[in-house]
């Protein structure tokens, strides 16, 4: 888990982020919010392709690692590259979790959980907010 987070590769002012993102996108990506379960566009989507950060367009996940967790949010068992995401401890809301941030712009994507018995190759569930992602379908 990354504890020392360097400067983002994409930096924008708060006003620039607000201008670029919808109110819901801003609340999740820049204020670490969470969309309601079972409401996101990618929850039950299994189209082949690449998932990008909705804020900066960096590649995050590939459809090959997406699985049906039935938890209400899109789930992946691994990012597409080690540097594509940053993990940091999150003790908000009276819980101890691991937050997942975009490795390029440090936007909030969701959380990662381990040891839940899904039988994935990594035994991890990257539980992402659909509003944090943009799917580029395979051509």
Your description of this structure?
Residues 1-22 are annotated as: Disordered. The protein is mainly β and 139 residues long. It has a single domain (14-137), classed as Metal Binding Protein, Guanine Nucleotide Exchange Factor, Chain A (Beta Complex). The protein is 10% helix and 30% strand. The strands form two sheets. It has a six-stranded antiparallel β-sheet with strand order 3-4-8-7-6-5, with no helix packed on it. A hairpin with a 5-residue loop joins strand 1 (49-53) and strand 2. It is globular and about 40 Å long. The N and C termini lie far apart (34 Å).
Topology of helices and strands:
Elements: H1 14-20, H2 23-29, E1 49-53, E2 59-62, E3 66-67, E4 75-76, E5 85-90, E6 97-102, E7 108-114, E8 124-128, E9 133-137
Antiparallel strand pairs: 1-2, 1-9, 3-4, 4-8, 5-6, 6-7, 7-8
Relevant CATH superfamily: Peptide methionine sulfoxide reductase
How many H/I helical runs? Answer: 2
CATH topology: Metal Binding Protein, Guanine Nucleotide Exchange Factor, Chain A
Please, what is the average pLDDT?
Answer: 92
Number of E-type strands:
9
SSE order, as H and E? HHEEEEEEEEE
**Terminal CA distance:** 34 Å
Strand content: 25-35%
Radius of gyration: 14 Å
Give the name of the CATH architecture.
Beta Complex
What fraction, in percent, of the residue positions are helical?
10-25%
Count of the domains:
1
Please summarize the sheet with the most strands: 6 strands, antiparallel
Keywords: Oxidoreductase
Domain MsrB: 14-138
Region (Disordered): 1-22
Biased composition (Basic and acidic residues): 8-21
